[in-house]
Amino acid sequence: MPLTPSQRSTREWPLLVLAVLLIGVIVFPLWQNYAQEQTDTWLTWPPERWAKLLLGPEQIACYVCFVWSAFIFLGRFFETRRQRHAFSLGLLSTEEGTRILPEDARPLQRIVDQINTQYGPFILANMIRAGLSKLALSRSSLDVRETLKTQADVDLGRLISSMATMNYLAWAIPAIGFFGTVRGLAGSMTLAGQGGEQLRIATEHLTIAFDCTLVALGLSLIAMFMIHTLQREEESLVIDCQQFCLEHLVNRLYEPVLSAGGVGHGPGMLPGGMIAGSLPERGGR
Question: Rounded to an integer, what is the distance from CA 194 to the centroid of its chain?
Fold first, then answer.
């Protein structure tokens, strides 16, 4: 399905690279002059310190939630890519000049059902099937358009509601990290005001508190990026399905309207050039 320039999304990754280069040119000289000695302490950490940072009980719980959400993301992301394969299966003719009569609705619906059964299920196929079914019943392009809009809202709502688990996990990761933070601060406060070995233990509890927060927030950033990426892909899929149906179904519907003398006018046209469906309903007025 070709896109016009206004429909093409902004290329975000080149903009990210440009932003990184711009900030790097500004920040790197300043970092070399003022902050290099402070950041070098991270490079000299012993393995035991890295183990405490990454392998606490709260951190492991965060890893479980993050990997779970990553598996859900990958499954849904590849499913979205599979759904886009429907555009190339010939569900509707894309040849110029094609017209669809109300009498063609049932045969086309059977073809769509066969393809959907063999390769699907597809959101696009369900949307086309709903439109053709309405066309066979009402023989009105306006009703078909409204049915497609309703079906798209249903599909989009189903996709949004099925994101509940990922949204919960994205909330649970920082919550678990804050749980570790509270645990570390509580342990440190119980030893406040004491010296010697107790002071060292209190410092370790503070380390636990900040390590949990650091790991949890880092994983949360990645999880939220996955969620927003997936939402954009799924919403774009539904919008593209609507666009496909508009171009290859609604805009090609042929509604012959006979005049009083039995002479047919153009597709969707009434005598005098009025568009079919644009006149007010008669009766009782």
Answer: 53
Q: Are 129 and 121 in contact (CB under 8 A)?
A: no
Q: What is the pLDDT of residues 70-100, one digit of tens each?
A: 999 999 999 999 999 999 898 888 888 788 8
Range 21-30, long-range pairs (CB < 8 A, 24+ positions): none
Residues in contact with 181: Cβ distance below 8 Å, sequence separation at least 6, in sequence order: 209, 210, 212, 213
* Residue 115 · residue 125 · CB < 8 Å: yes
CA-based nearest residue to 59, from 51, 70, 69:
51
Domain map (residue ranges) of the chain: 46-173+227-258
What pLDDT does 165 receive?
Answer: 93
d(CA 135, CA 103): 9
Phi/psi at 105 (5° precision): -65, -50
In angstroms, what is the C-alpha Rg of the chain?
30
For 33, 105, 106, 130, 281, the CA distances from 137, given in Å and listed in that order, are: 76, 9, 10, 11, 19
Reported pTM: 0.75
| Residue that is written with structure tokens 């900030």 in the block | 23
Tokens of 142: 């306006």
> How does DSSP classify residue 89?
T
Nearest to 230 by CA among 145, 140, 272, 169: 169
Q: What is the pLDDT of residue 78?
A: 94
108: which 2 tokens? 């086309």
* 136: exposed, middle or buried (Cβ count in 10 Å: 0-12, 13-18, 19+): middle
State pLDDT tens for residues 223-277: 999 999 999 999 999 999 999 999 988 888 876 654 444 444 444 433 333 333 3
